[in-house]
Write a structure and sequence with these properties.
Helix content is about 40%, strand content about 25%. The protein has nine helices and 15 strands. The strands form three sheets. The chain has a six-stranded antiparallel beta sheet, covered by helices on one side. The chain has a six-stranded mixed beta sheet with strand order 8-12-13-3-14-15, with helices on both faces. The longest helix is centred in the middle third of the chain and has 40 residues, at about 170-210. The two termini are about 30 Å apart. The mean pLDDT is about 90.
Length: about 375
C-alpha cells in the first residue's frame, strides 16, 4: 500500500497544495516551523481521522478559515482508493471511494500507517495513557471490531461514572446492569489487547535481538486490572472485581476496574526497561515500530505507510542503519528533517521535497 497523492486545503499553515509521492522513500526538508510536521500529520490524519498532536479538529483548520479539506488516494495491491476528510465547525465528514462513512470503524483501516515521532521515546517511561493510546491506534487499524468494542466500552464507562457522580442514591439494580455491560465490552477489549501484545512481543523481540547484536531479549507484559484467560472467565472476574471495588467507586465517584486503567511493562533481559539507558529505550521503540509494520502486513496483507517525524537525528548511525535495513523495499516511507547531512544509506527510489512557509516544492535528489 502507498499514498500516491495528497491534497490539502486550509490545513494548518497550508492554503492549497498538492503533492505526488514516490512509492519508496520521501523526504521533507525544511527549517523548523515551516510545515514539515504539519504535512506528515495530514497523512496520519487521513489514515486515522485523528492527529497525533492535538485532540481538537479546529486547531487543524487554517487561521481565519472555517473549513479544511484533506484528500488523496492510495494504491493497494488490488485497487486505487480515494480518501477524503472535510473539517468544519459542523464536524467532520469522512469518505472512502467518494462515499460518506457513517462509522469510524468503516473508515479506519483503509489506509494504515506507523508513526515514529520524538514523543514515542516517552513510551517506556511516560504515563500509562501513552501506552494505552499505542495499543488503541495499532489495534484499531488491523481489527475494526476492536474500535467498536472500545467505543461501546467507553460509552458505558462514561454512563457509570456520570451515574456515580450525580445520583443522590445509588440504585443497586441499575448499577448491576451497567456493571454487566461494562464487563461485557471490557472483557472483549482486554481479549483483543492480550492477543495483540502476544503477537507484538514475538515480532518485536526478533528485531530487538538484531538491533542489540543478540545481546538483549525483549519482553512485553500486558498489565490488566482483570487478567485475561478467556471471555467467559474474564467476564466473571470483571463482575467480581467491580463488586469488590463498588464501595470505593461510590466514594471516589469513578470506576477503578477495567481496560481504561491497563498498562504495558517492558523488560530487557528480564530487567524493567524503566531502568535502562536512553540508548536501550531507543532500541526498544525502534523494535516496536518495525514489529508494527510486520503485524499490520500479516493481518491486512499490505504493508503500512511509515512516517518518521524528525526522529533520524535522535538515532545514532548504528540505529539509523538498523532502521533503514529493517524497512522493507515495498514500505513507503516519509521522513521529516532539517537537512540530509545525518542521513546515510539512502535508496535510489526516493523523492525530496523542500518545505518553506507552507509551500512544498519537489527537488531533484543529489545524494552523494
Amino acid at each position: 500500500m502507498w499514498i500516491k497523492e495528497l491534497k490539502l486545503k486550509n490545513y494548518r499553515n497550508y492554503r492549497e497544495i498538492k503533492a505526488q509521492f514516490s512509492s519508496g522513500l520521501n523526504i521533507f526538508i525544511g527549517k523548523n516551523a515551516q510545515g514539515k510536521t504539519n504535512f506528515l500529520e495530514a497523512i496520519y490524519f487521513l489514515s486515522l481521522t485523528r492527529s497525533h498532536r492535538t485532540r481538537f479538529d479546529k486547531e487543524l483548520i487554517r487561521f481565519n478559515k472555517r473549513e479544511a479539506l484533506i484528500s488523496g488516494y492510495i494504491q493497494r495491491s488490488d485497487a486505487k482508493i480515494p480518501l477524503e476528510i472535510s473539517l468544519s465547525d459542523r464536524g467532520r465528514v469522512t469518505k472512502v471511494n467518494h462515499l460518506k462513512q457513517a462509522k469510524l470503524s468503516d473508515y479506519v483501516g483503509t489506509m494504515t500507517v506507523v508513526l515514529f515521532a520524538p514523543e514515542d521515546l516517552q513510551l517506556v517511561k511516560g504515563a500509562p495513557r501513552l501506552r494505552r493510546k499505542f495499543m488503541d491506534i495499532d489495534l484499531g487499524q488491523i481489527k475494526p471490531v476492536y474500535l467498536s468494542d472500545l467505543s461501546h466500552y467507553n460509552h458505558v464507562l462514561k454512563q457509570r461514572n456520570t451515574y456515580l457522580k450525580t445520583a443522590e442514591k445509588i440504585d443497586s439494580d441499575f448499577l448491576a446492569v451497567l456493571n454487566e455491560q461494562l464487563a461485557d465490552y471490557g472483557s472483549r477489549v482486554i481479549g483483543h489487547r492480550s492477543a495483540f501484545i502476544r503477537d507484538l512481543e514475538k515480532e518485536a523481540d526478533k528485531h530487538h535481538q538484531i538491533i542489540s547484536n543478540d545481546l538483549e531479549r525483549l519482553h512485553i507484559h500486558y498489565s490488566s486490572s482483570v487478567p485475561y484467560t478467556d471471555y467467559s472467565e474474564t467476564y466473571k472476574e470483571f463482575i467480581k472485581q467491580l463488586q469488590k471495588k463498588q464501595a470505593r467507586d461510590m466514594i471516589k465517584k469513578n470506576t477503578s476496574v477495567g481496560p481504561h486503567r491497563d498498562d504495558l511493562e517492558f523488560f530487557i533481559n528480564d530487567i524493567n526497561a524503566d531502568f535502562g539507558s536512553q540508548g536501550q529505550h531507543r532500541s526498544l521503540i525502534l523494535s516496536l515500530k518495525l514489529a508494527e509494520i510486520e503485524l499490520i502486513k500479516a493481518v491486512t496483507g499490505d504493508y503500512p505507510i511509515l512516517l518518521l517525524d524528525d526522529v533520524m537525528s535522535e538515532l545514532d548511525s548504528q540505529r539509523q542503519t538498523k532502521l533503514l535495513q529493517g524497512i522493507k523495499e515495498n514500505v513507503q516511507t516519509f521522513i521529516t528533517t532539517t537537512s540530509l547531512e545525518h542521513l546515510t544509506n539512502l535508496p535510489d527510489n526516493l523523492k525530496i521535497f523542500m518545505i518553506d512557509q507552507g509551500q512544498i516544492k519537489e527537488e531533484n535528489p543529489k545524494i552523494t
